[in-house]
């Protein structure tokens, strides 16, 4: 295996694929400091025992007294280091590593956490190396089987094409980041057409925090350090302690952003911020096991919701469980699991499907609702599977809940085109009582292809992989057939007289009169293409992603950054908005689909719904 070399153009290390393992890793020869530190002390010791002119006899060798003194000092130093730094950790491990608290967090976990807290680096080069290794999963531990495709060695031609696409995506991110930096630094969003900014997500710098781990993954180390400095010196959550903050967005963008960036860099301030935020988010739990949709920093201003949006209460589990693992404070993990445990007792009309609005309580019945995997419910289904993965397969109940939902998706939600094509399907909206399904699929629902694909690998459900491919193809066609090359917010089709089938528009694929025509730079289709590529190794998914990237360049790029469109069939309909998830997710998934597969491997990380990678430990 060749040692990795730093590629300045891509801002990252190039590695060579290790055929046996199926992924790339840096060669030890890379580290010059490792080599010198191994060689130098031995050489120094040898010199101490060289013949001298001022001998004290010691067998065959003569020893210089001054050198002997130096040797003794080194030995004393090493013994002190042993007692101060290494021994305490090991003795703690020996005495109570098996003690487990009520929530399954062992003291061994805490020790592992402490490893994470150790300052990872001492200088610029060290931090770059640390981040490089971390992005490639150093420190990940799991007992679940590996699901990524074992990629064979790449041809030169494929590599050149992939790297030029990777570079183009990286340039795109740099363009968006520069626009944010120049026009909106420290604010939530840049306005990509007019310039200026918006503060619509707490005013805490949403784009900054949401982008931290993307900066690390793409090797923008200097830019990351600038953003980190801003977090250290300027970021605050307490400016307005009575303002109502959206729980869901705060968790997925801010807490997820801090945790993802912490897991890739070990920068303790990021964990401190996540923990401080965690403390405030507990204010959302006001006499209920479910969190309110809004919370305040000052708890005396928090109200009490009567009903709860499923996606809002079912999309904190990854963040809260990881926060507990990293801090050793079990409260977050307990809150997260309690919600899923309650939802697991629900008795809906269709097994596995829950309505967009739910109540707090065990064994509740739900009927006559519109079931989908799109807006208001989407990431609840995503987190059932991902929480099971993050908890290393131990929460069997969540796997069962996920599988039950997948079985109902297959039975009630899948709609096929009337023309008989087997290449693609859509996931419609089901009435839970009549069981009728309508050909209406939101862009958000396109994430489901990726979850189906991962579930199929973990649970050996090979037919689910076929469905995942068909769903992704349906989502991709929504892009392929529009004038801008981008898919609408909700693609609606004409109903067929045959149940479970739909009719496509001959010109536009979806019906442009019935659909919600805006595209707000959403990532879900790219997310699924990335997962499918990593699980199957099929280049087709890279090519589709590349087509979408080119559409973004053509239809959404402005002189400042990238903008959404109010109508995907009109490239001039710029909405002057760049959501932070464009940098956190859309460009990240694009970058990852053209990276080597060891970068944020699905076998090392679980990504939260905002694409923040959480290390599996
Ligand atoms: C993101 O904030 C998250 O992916 C969320 O789960 C859904 N909406 C946006 C992206 O579309």
Automatic annotation (TrEMBL):
Entry keyword Disulfide bond: yes
Entry keyword annotation includes Transmembrane: yes
Transmembrane segments: 68-87
Keyword annotations: Calcium, Disulfide bond, Glycosidase, Hydrolase, Membrane, Metal-binding, Transmembrane, Transmembrane helix
Pathway(s) annotated for this protein in UniProt: Protein modification; protein glycosylation
Family: Belongs to the glycosyl hydrolase 47 family.
Protein name: alpha-1,2-Mannosidase
Lineage, opening ranks: Eukaryota, Fungi, Fungi incertae sedis, Mucoromycota, Mortierellomycotina
